[in-house]
Amino acid sequence: MVDPAAPTSAPLDSGDITTAGPVPLDDALPQHVERVLAGYLDRRRTDVLGIDPAVAQAADALAGFVLGGGKRLRPTFAWWGWRGAGGDPQDEHAQGVLSAIAALELVQACALVHDDLMDASSTRRGRPTVHVEFARVHASNGWSGPPARFGAAVAILVGDLAQVWADDMFHSAALPEGAHARAGEPWRAMRTEVLSGQYLDVLAQASGDAAEATALKIDRFKTAAYTVERPLHLGAAIAGAEAPVLGAYRRYGADIGVAFQLRDDLLGVFGDPRVTGKPAGDDLREGKRTLLVAAALQRAEQRGDRAAHEVITRALGDPGLAGEELDRVRAALSELGAVQVVEQRIAALTGSALDALDAAPVLEPARARLFELAERATRRAW
């Protein structure tokens, strides 16, 4: 039975995705990505509706998740990677490129839905996470078994569905001859890297590994690879970029991607939930060994500050961390100089990335846009 109160998507625009619309692609890329995603998800909903209306409920949850928020950062990097390597928005294949890079949003949806479940997060973008919402559906219907187990099972399947449809969307995009073969390398590498980084993150939480090198490796593969580096690589590969551009993109992408995650780590502890869409301190409650935490613990040990060390270690993995105790952790992180360490690393990585970009034969207006994106990604307040 389909619960009428179950999560559903916003109305989908199933218009013709081969029509670029009145606004140039460069000037309104997120809206064009949204349009393509909406049309694709609407068509795929029809596929599962033919299996059973109940399955469409899961598809609606995925569509609602994908279309209900997000900055479309990954397709944006992929688009400007393509443009900087010679891609032309007036080309007959531009809409196919748009479809291929929009598939990155489905890869992200898979990662986020599964990540929320693994981290036991209750909200995402200010709304209940998929596993929480389906646990509510289970409980409201009085179904058998634990609601949380049902919610977890559905979240796993919704995330898997996002990954399957991401592959379908990418491989069915109308690209120039040879582009799929070239772009297959970053597409395959990206999926392996993000899963590897996710495993390393889970392992570090379980083992208590608080080494700075471990935190940075997790940032490199869990976030940087699929957020900036591989999307840029993907766009460039579709355009047939030469080695100097590919190398610069990968250096820029790895560094900006790690800096992006380090900014996210700071926001996760010190940010305003009304802006970030997630409760402050979630990373601490989940026991994540971020660079911020690793740097603080290392400095507490060096100074022999057992009190500060205990404040931080006691908070890691404490699901009830809030209020004055959270404030004490924040104060300890600041007083130990960990915030400054992370800010300095962000600045160094951003400088290295921009140097790599500046030295490469990247075409305008992509060069200027990538400089702007670096600023947005590393200095943001969201």
Tags for this model:
382 residues, mainly alpha, Farnesyl Diphosphate Synthase, two-stranded antiparallel ribbon, EC 2.5.1.84, Polyprenyl_synt
What is the CATH third-level topology name of the largest domain?
A: Farnesyl Diphosphate Synthase
- Average the pLDDT over all residues and give the rounded result: 91
Major sheet description: 2 strands, antiparallel
Low-confidence stretches: 1-21
Structural class: mainly alpha
- CATH class of the largest domain, named Mainly Alpha
Strand order of the largest sheet: 1-2
> C-alpha Rg, in Å?
21 Å
How much helical structure, as a percent, in the residues? Answer: over 70%
The CATH architecture of the largest domain can be named as Orthogonal Bundle
Total number of distinct structural domains: 2
**Strand percentage, roughly?**
under 5%
What do we call the CATH homologous superfamily of the largest domain?
Farnesyl Diphosphate Synthase
**Total beta-strand segments:** 2
How many angstroms does the end-to-end distance come to? 39 Å
Q: What is the general shape?
A: globular
Number of helices: 16
Q: What is the helix/strand order?
A: HHHHEEHHHHHHHHHHHH
